[in-house]
Amino acid sequence: MDALESMEILKAAAGEGGRIEGRSFAGLALDGARISGFTFVGGSLGGSFAGSSFTGCAFEGVSLGSSDLTGASFTQCLFEGDALSGAKLEGAAFTRSRLEVPVSRGPDLKKSFFNLCDFGQAFVVQGADLGTAVFMDCSFKAFGALESVLEFSVFRDCGFSSVKMSKSKAKGMQMTGLTLPAFAAGESDLSQAVFMNCIMSGARFDTCRMDGATFSGADLSGSHFSASSAAKASFPGASFRSADIGGLSAPYADFSRSDFGGARCLGADLAGVNLHRAKEIDPQAMGINAPGARLTDRALARAEDFRPRLRWGGPEPRAGRGAPWFRACPEPEPEEEAGPARRAGQFDGPERRTGQGWYGAGLSGSGQISSPASLVWEDMGQSE
Question: pTM for the complete prediction?
Fold first, then answer.
């Protein structure tokens, strides 16, 4: 059966307004076809639709499990009932579509792309593969993943009412700038996952693996950790106010600039962690097992507190003569630590001319080194 014959079969089965009810199709060959305006109600749609384009179509309770929809695109389409269960939708693209599919069992949605989609009252996948899938500007009421794969999937600028994961693999998953109320993860792998600037108040992590995960700037106030590991994870700037982290094992994790105000930490394992400028935390008084924890990271403190002192190096700029040069002036090095070239006032590299000025590392207008670590930009018209 070729594409032309397959399309004629669909058109012949369609009633007024392109509505096809209770029909089952098998063996259709519509790879790369453009299909628009059809409404499939009940029955099944079987065949090969790889790379096809669906526009303004509705799939109301129709089974797509026997269809190959790899790389297909759906624009302003409607999915209802059990339409996605068992569907092969690897690399498919959904744009401005509505998916009223409360429970989908075993759909293959890896590498798929969802943009400006509405997932209705609930979107729960069981045994699904959402690896490397991307969700942009989508609306979820209740999102659930049961025994599913979400490895390296991306959620950005999406809205959620609740998120629940159970026995799922979400390694490398990325969530950025999201509000995640009622977030719950149980017996799931969140290692190397990224939660960037997310609001996760009251989140629950039960028997989760979060090794190497990143919760940068996350609001985890009131959250609960039970029998969970987060070795070498990063929580910079996170808030743990009133949280219960007693069941968290996070050796060598980064908690720099985190806030632990009112947190219950008894029994937490924070061996070797970085607590640089963390707020309201006293490991000994709070019953935290924290051998080797660093309360201050000296190198990081020096970098954060560094303020270069600038000195104007010349007269006020004359009209039409460009800007004056400036020099950063750190503390001079001791004479005995200076190299032989510096002590001799020599420089083994040529000056470079940039624009209207001369640029040289540590050189004054005369070519002599004026400061061990100075940076000079000098206008030619002002070195007199």
Answer: 0.75
Task: Calculate the alpha carbon distances from 154 to 8, 109, 123, 132, 135 in Å.
Answer: 39, 13, 16, 7, 6
Contact 74, 97 (CB under 8 A): yes
Structure confidence by residue, pLDDT tens digits, 151-169? 999 999 999 999 999 999 9
145 residue type, one letter: A
Q: How far is CA 88 from the centre of its chain?
A: 26
Distances in Å between the alpha carbon of 25 and those of 46, 47, 48, 53? 5, 8, 11, 18
The domains found in the chain, sorted by start residue, are 1-169 (2.160.20.80), 182-306 (2.160.20.80), 309-332+342-382 (no CATH)
Contacts of 257 (CB under 8 A, 6+ apart): 236, 237, 276, 277, 278, 279
Instruction: Give the integer Cα–Cα distance in Å for 132 and 134.
Output: 6
Q: Could you write out the DSSP letters of every residue in 278-328?
A: -BS--TTTTT-B-TT-BS--HHHHHHHH----EEE-SSPPPTTS-PPPEEE
Can you tell me whether residue 5 is helix, strand or coil?
A: helix
Q: Which of 224, 152, 241 is nearest to 186 (CA)?
A: 224
